[in-house]
Design a protein that fits this description.
The protein has 66 residues and is mainly α. 97% of the residues lie in helices and 0% in strands. It contains 1 helix and no strands.
């Protein structure tokens, strides 16, 4: 009986190790995806600021033309 319990315990430990490995891979993927989203967000913020400054400059030029 002890042999069966030991084998069952080994199997559960192997399953836990496998699950931990799967979760670690998933976690790494999610971290990479999060980094990509943050980078894309920063790019969009930069583009928005550039567009805002260009519009402000155009408005200023139009005001000087009046």
């Amino acid at each position: 009986m002890a042999e069966n319990q030991l084998k069952a315990l080994e199997q559960k430990i192997d399953e836990l190790i496998s699950l931990c490995n799967d979760l670690n891979r998933e976690n790494q993927g999610l971290k990479a995806e999060s980094a990509n989203w943050h980078s894309e967000r920063q790019d969009l913020i930069d583009k928005n600021e550039l567009a805002r400054s260009k519009v402000a400059a155009m408005i200023e030029r139009l005001r000087t033309m009046e």
